[in-house]
Amino acid sequence: GTEGPGVSVSEERQSPAESSGITVIYNPYASLSIEQQRQKLPVFKLRNHILYLVENYQTLVIVGETGCGKSTQIPQYLAEAGWTAEGRVVGVTQPRRVAAVSVAGRVADERGAVLGHEVGYCIRFDDCTDPQATRIKFLTDGMLVREMMADPLLTRYSVLMLDEAHERTLYTDIAIGLLKKVQKKRGDLRLIVASATLDAEKFRDFFNQNDTGDPSKDTSVILTVEGRTFPVDIFYIQSPVPDYIKSTVETAMKIHQMENDGDILAFLTGQEEVETVVSMLIEQARALSRTGMKKHLRVLPMYAGLPSPEQMKVFERVSHSVRKVIVATNIAETSITIHGIAFVIDCGFVKLRAYNPKTAIECLVVVPVSKASANQRAGRAGRNRSGKCYRLYTEDDFEKLPKSTVPEMQRSNLAPVILQLKALGIDNVLRFPFLSPPPAQSMVQALELLYALGGLDMHCRLTEPLGMRIAEFPLNPMFAKMLLESGNFGCSQEILTIAAMMQIQNVFVIPPNQKTQAARQHRKFAVEEGDHLTMLNVYEAFVKHSKSSQWCQEHFLNYKGLVRASVVREQLKKLLVRFKVPKKSSEGDPDPVLRCIVSGFFANAAKFHSTGALHSVTFKEHSQPNILFIKTIRDDHELHIHPTSVLYAEKPPRWVVYNEVIQTAKYYMRDVTAVESAWLLELAPHFYQQGTHLSLKAKRAKVDDH
């Protein structure tokens, strides 16, 4: 858990909007001195034992509940024991950016240091460290992998701690594989793998270099830190519920009316569900207070795209006559500890990224939670007192849940992974020591995409200079290719803005009670070509109005997100300057911009069918040579334009390219732009070629154009 006394953090995976501001958290020990607060943490009792194990083993696997203090305290114990002497650094990786920033802030406070000096952080697009002075460095696992491009053996680090390793993100797994290789060459490098769940044996066995069969020669060891936990009673429903959103609201209201004091934490899968439940609960709470109910209900949302001040409200204390209900995504599973939670409502589902190598489509999909996640959720009710967990599924269904969540490495598009490994000089990616090997088909699909983008040659080697440059961008390879081509299309200024805006979630703010007003304001920015140029309009208007927060409020725009986009844009601009990409503008002409987008996103093309849906353009081998055909997603599924797109409910264009697909009731494309089929032929001739009967076809595909 990324928590010390008074620090707790939150952010969903892939939440570019969450970047700034250090989280201020409720701290039950705030009246004590810093030193007394540190000594109250469960990990303190094991301080000397931890230091002994780090000294004597190359790898220490620590299992500790969220809230035991491992994230904030262990780096300090190491610094106090001399591991940062002579210019050496203790590094701590976090899967989430907000965690890296928040924990660094807390540790700096505890050490009486200015953040960015002795204690610093390094996240994508934001480096707050001093190369001369920083001794404890918090960074995302992705940034650690990037650092290895310049320093493959991580020579400045004496100890590296991989925190929240149980999350098994893409970059956590790459870092794990790389560090195993580094340890073979650097016997002095110590590694601490911290996990909130009991998959410790897997980590220990992976890093253990002892092949003698003699346990006394083991190079890795496990230590368990007991957290502050209280008993939690689990309640299941008798028969499955048809609508977990409605059941969440009903359960919360029953608890409020029938149970004693204690706040409620409800888990749902995404922002939309959270906002729906929040609105329904507020309405029911108002109705209840009109009937004379003395205890009031304070309903608060919690998800990654929520602005920081709104997030902070969940940690504020309330009077005894008020009960808090926090409606959250899985952000509240292990990354944060909210004081006062006595009741948890678990819908039993989670939204995950899933990649289907057959169709080359990666999408966000709602799936049942794992047992490990369900237990983490239940444990939220037992942090400060005994509690109750209401699972909106049957006990039989719980028994059928998978033991743990499938690691991202086994359900993601691997193109960015392969690119990074190639850039690190690992040519044979199939022999890389993955903790959980990815599917071979996903590897092949990723190699094909990188070849199509021009990042790899026929021998699967990184191309010079294009492949190396794509690898240097902290972005999806498609975005990197689009940026690097932008000078040739004479629109690098516009493409910089579009790429930066695409890293931000929820640019448009839609308050539940002001949907009509918000839609009216948002329409001012919309253009018929689609979402990419609409985002360009939003950003240019934001700059024209001096980046005013007041202007954003009036136009229902996410001010913090737009400020973040301007920071990201500056960082990307530096890379374009370094690679000598000409600074050019298309001066309002949309065509060069759209063609440039196609040059990066040609693989994400879809075509309108007269049935009213768009079919994805994907490719499949056929037993007979030159007989080529279209394959829709999962054989018979169709793609639809997401309701948030400016192209939704408009006359559909014949061809589009999209940024990503999400799956709810249907498969929806997000960030969609209308394009010409001729551009696909012109800009990706290696991918598409003119077929007979006015059709497009690829070497292993055919896409009818009628």
Automatic annotation (TrEMBL):
Cited CDD domains: DEXHc_DHX35 (cd17980), SF2_C_RHA (cd18791)
GO BP annotations listed: mRNA processing; RNA splicing
InterPro entries, per the entry: DEAD-box_helicase_OB_fold, DNA/RNA_helicase_DEAH_CS, HA2_WH, Helicase-assoc_dom, Helicase_ATP-bd, Helicase_C-like, P-loop_NTPase
GO cellular component, one term: catalytic step 2 spliceosome
Domain Helicase ATP-binding: 51-216
Keywords noted in UniProt: ATP-binding, Helicase, Hydrolase, mRNA processing, mRNA splicing, Nucleotide-binding
Enzyme Commission no: 3.6.4.13
SMART domains, sorted: DEXDc, HA2, HELICc
GO MF: ATP binding; hydrolase activity; RNA binding; RNA helicase activity
UniProt catalytic activity: ATP + H2O = ADP + phosphate + H(+)
Limits of the Helicase C-terminal domain: 240-425
Similarity annotation: Belongs to the DEAD box helicase family. DEAH subfamily.
Biological function: May be involved in pre-mRNA splicing.
Name assigned to this protein: Probable ATP-dependent RNA helicase DHX35
